[in-house]
Q: What sequence folds into this?
């Protein structure tokens, strides 16, 4: 009976695993179809200069229109990476965002663009050519584009990733480390990966002012960035006290629900007239 019980448990595991595998395959088929159908869309979250509250950039954030639902990236970026779909999807995201921002700039709005990259894209064949091709097609100057990577790029084939990113940087594109402070040995990574900007992880901003260590660490990251000539962007600003504290620490830029939520292109265009947000 004991053995049968064990076997039964195994069968249950096998059935669950089968369900998971089937579910994942179905999701991947659905995602591939979604890309073909134009079911992805971009939202843009403003980034402001904390000194004068001017919108200096937008970060493109992908969503999936799945029936009535608008799926957040957490539900599909992982599976898209697993299946390799992230490569064509990422290219679509880049082209769409660059075209939109080139259009806004042509309407005389001086604004920069940030786009998130997955390490799978960086390591894909011809990635640097893809990026320079998109810039040429859309007419967006390389200096306007920041590509955001997280510390994960230094885990999978770091030599190759660092080389590709350096090539992009030689084109004039800027690089930012996303979610800075979350990964392992963040400071050491700044030696290998030359970046122009650091985005401080929201977990730091959340505990600003209430956790002494976090407050000190945040201040240290800001000063370090200044000393290294990097742009510092605080992510996840939700409360006025956090904003005030960041300003007093000399943090250059900020992003978060208090400043502005991610919004569709039309929402950004509504800001076009007066590009300063009352803060
Ligand atoms: P991320 O690049 O760190 O993007 C910031 C995330 O924080 C966004 O979530 C944004 O909506 C959210 N956020 C901004 N301000 C606040 C705030 O004040 N409070 C809180 N609680 N959240 C805030 P989102 O759009 O769901 O994106 C999640 C992650 O998915 C991104 O993190 C990024 O890693 C990934 N992602 C998004 N778009 C893309 C993309 O186009 N390509 C790739 N490869 N990854 C993407
Ligand atoms: Mg990001
Ligand atoms: Mg990230
Ligand atoms: Mg982040």
A:
């Amino acid at each position: 009976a004991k053995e049968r019980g064990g076997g039964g448990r195994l069968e249950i595991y096998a059935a669950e695993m089968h369900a998971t595998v089937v579910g994942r395959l179905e999701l991947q088929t659905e995602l591939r179809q979604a890309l073909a159908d134009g079911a992805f869309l971009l939202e843009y979250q403003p980034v402001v200069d904390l000194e004068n509250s001017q919108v200096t950039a937008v970060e493109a954030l992908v969503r999936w229109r799945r029936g009535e639902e608008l799926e957040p990236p957490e539900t599909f970026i992982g599976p898209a990476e697993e299946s390799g779909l992230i490569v064509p999807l990422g290219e679509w995201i880049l082209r769409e965002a660059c075209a939109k921002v080139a259009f806004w700039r042509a309407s005389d709005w001086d604004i920069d663009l940030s786009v998130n990259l997955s390490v799978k894209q960086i390591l894909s064949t011809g990635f640097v050519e893809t990026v320079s091709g998109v810039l040429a097609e859309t007419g967006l100057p390389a200096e306007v584009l920041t590509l955001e990577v997280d510390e994960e790029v230094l885990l999978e084939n770091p030599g190759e990733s660092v080389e590709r990113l350096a090539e992009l940087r030689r084109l004039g594109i800027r690089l930012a480390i996303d979610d800075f402070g979350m990964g392992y040995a963040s400071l050491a990574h700044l030696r290998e990966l030359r970046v122009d900007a650091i985005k401080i992880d929201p977990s730091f901003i959340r505990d600003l002012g209430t956790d002494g260590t976090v407050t000190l660490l945040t201040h240290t990251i800001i000063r370090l960035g200044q000393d290294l000539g990097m742009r510092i962007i605080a992510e996840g600003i939700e409360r006025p006290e956090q904003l005030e504290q960041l300003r007093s620490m000399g943090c250059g830029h900020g992003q978060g629900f208090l400043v502005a939520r991610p919004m569709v292109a039309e929402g950004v265009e509504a800001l076009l007239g007066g590009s300063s947000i009352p803060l």
